[in-house]
Design a protein that fits this description.
The protein is α/β, with parallel strands linked by helices. The protein has helices at about 15-20, 25-30, 65-75, 95-105, 120-125, 180-200, 210-215, and strands at about 45, 50-60, 80-95, 110-115, 130, 145-150, 150-155, 155-160, 165-170, 170-175. It has a single domain (about 15-180), classed as Glucose Oxidase, domain 1. It is built from 7 helices and 10 strands. The strands form 2 sheets. Strands 1, 2, 3, 4, 5, 6, 9 and 10 form an 8-stranded mixed beta sheet that branches. Its cofactor is a divalent metal cation. InterPro entries: RraA/RraA-like, RraA/RraA-like_sf.
Length: about 230
């Protein structure tokens, strides 16, 4: 028997893990997870100050149609982040002020769309975290089915319902739900290591210790040669 188009519930990253993860930049998680999980750079915060972290509530729509987003909003739980596979379409907006106001009222943590939005100035005033491929004043249709709660492709990355999505002015990173608890200690260590390195640089230790070996390995320098 095939699975239903709408999966109403699924395991989510825990609120405690989300709270811990939100202390770190998405870039930290990308680094410690093998430089994987970052959505394509076309998906950016509507305003650079916007940040979001929470379990993904996945939605797949036809380009320019937001019927399934409305359905998803009636099912999502407080703290969820709507993550919408809008096929990268920029010919019309999938969401605007009315839907964003409702999303905020429902307690959603934010919205990430591989598609466009509109009413950007009003969303800015709301200070509700929205990530999209840009804006378009054209409105959507509400005619076509899609899927909710299934794995989607958003910004070229697989996103499963319940995975952690975390975003800031750099962009958005997805962390698999099962991997997150083991990555949190690595994130803390990475932040400490970077702080130590920055302090050393400010004290004059600017040389990259790994550079010569990497240049030799790349064939740019001969063995024993230095810059």
């Amino acid at each position: 028997m095939s699975s239903p188009d709408i999966i109403k519930d699924f395991p989510r990253v825990s609120p405690e893990d989300v709270a811990q993860a939100s202390q770190y930049q998405p870039a930290i998680f990308s680094d410690i997870a093998g430089r994987r999980g970052a959505l394509h750079g076309r998906i950016q915060a509507l305003r650079p100050r916007m940040k979001v972290a929470g379990p993904a509530f996945t939605v797949e729509v036809r380009p320019g149609d937001n019927l399934m987003i409305h359905a998803a909003m009636s099912l999502a739980k407080p703290g969820d982040v709507l993550v919408v596979d809008g096929k990268g379409d920029q010919t019309s907006a999938l969401m605007g002020t009315i839907m964003m106001t409702a999303a905020r009222q429902l307690g959603l943590a934010g919205v990430i769309l591989d598609g466009a939005v509109r009413d950007s100035l009003e969303i800015d005033e709301m200070d509700f975290p929205v990530f999209s491929v840009g804006t378009n004043p054209n409105g959507p249709t509400k005619n076509n089915g899609g899927r909710i709660g299934h794995p989607i492709s958003c910004g070229g990355v697989t996103v499963r319902a319940g995975d952690l999505v975390i975003g800031d002015g750099d962009g958005v990173v997805v962390v698999e739900r099962e991997q997150l608890p083991g990555l949190l200690p690595l994130a803390a260590h990475k932040v400490q290591a970077e702080a130590k390195r920055i302090a050393a640089i400010k004290n004059g230790d600017t040389a990259a210790k790994w550079l010569t070996a990497s240049l030799v390995a790349a064939g740019v320098l001969r063995e024993g040669e230095v810059l």
